[in-house]
Amino acid sequence: MIVIPAVDIKNGKCVRLLQGRMDAETVFSDDPAAMAKQWEDEGAEIIHVIDLDGAFEKSPRNLISIKKILEAIKVDIQVGGGIRNEETVRMFLDIGVKRVIIGTEAIRNPQLVKDACKAFPGQVVVGIDALHGRVAIEGWAETTEVMAADLAKQFEDCGVAAINFTDIHRDGMQTGPNIEETKKLAEAISIPVIASGGVSTIEDIKNLMPLEAAGVSGVITGRALYSGTLNLKEAIAISKQGLA
């Protein structure tokens, strides 16, 4: 299982939100590229970068910061937030982003995901953010009646690299990941699932590791790294033991 540090960008700064609320932010750094470099130095193999302004404003808003991250590090990054058309997907891949995350448009326009997967095989991730099992969109501002597993099943066999599954209720709260919902989703599909939301300590990493057998291939963590309750080097070391 791979441990993926998150760099969330708002107004050019590295922040974390509580439950996705734009009015509940903590600024951790004025330099997202420096944070990404720190996580690379501590062993990260890929960095999860979210343009929070882009998620709410429906198109990328922190492109300068993302380009600086690409210049500062050698490891891959995946980017989400405001990706609503194939042109934006292509733009990010052209500047060196490894994978793009399509969230809101996956439910509004599933054909975009399928077309992007065909055009850019292995480089498209679907971001499914759920509250009590129901998919939330528009930067989590709107909750739909669609169940997370039902949405994910639409993308079987079209070449999606992974499903990023976030439990909004737990995101940024450091209350532990939603093991049950994550396992349920992973067992319902053949696409690899990356867990997100609620990771607080090394115990949370250990609790997620048995889910590898169900298809959970990674875990994204943010606030726990920034607040110091989780050590990235230790988390990576523990996660790799599952491969031994």
From TrEMBL:
Active site (UniProt): 8, 129
Subcellular location: Cytoplasm
Spans traversing the lipid bilayer: none
Entry's Gene Ontology molecular function annotations: 1-(5-phosphoribosyl)-5-[(5-phosphoribosylamino)methylideneamino]imidazole-4-carboxamide isomerase activity
Keyword NADP tagged: no
UniProt entry keywords in alphabetical sequence: Amino-acid biosynthesis, Cytoplasm, Histidine biosynthesis, Isomerase
Reactions the enzyme catalyzes: 1-(5-phospho-beta-D-ribosyl)-5-[(5-phospho-beta-D-ribosylamino)methylideneamino]imidazole-4-carboxamide = 5-[(5-phospho-1-deoxy-D-ribulos-1-ylimino)methylamino]-1-(5-phospho-beta-D-ribosyl)imidazole-4-carboxamide
InterPro entries the UniProt entry points to: Aldolase_TIM, His_biosynth, HisA/PriA, HisA_bact_arch, Isoase_HisA-like, RibuloseP-bd_barrel
GO CC term (a single one): cytoplasm
Keyword Isomerase: yes
SUPFAM superfamilies linked to this entry: Ribulose-phoshate binding barrel
NCBIfam families on file: 1-(5-phosphoribosyl)-5-[(5-phosphoribosylamino)methylideneamino]imidazole-4-carboxamide isomerase, PRK13585.1
Family as reported in the entry's similarity comment: Belongs to the HisA/HisF family.
Name of this chain's protein: 1-(5-phosphoribosyl)-5-[(5-phosphoribosylamino)methylideneamino] imidazole-4-carboxamide isomerase
Species for this entry: Desulfonema magnum
Top-level taxonomy: Bacteria, Pseudomonadati, Thermodesulfobacteriota, Desulfobacteria, Desulfobacterales
Gene that encodes the chain: hisA
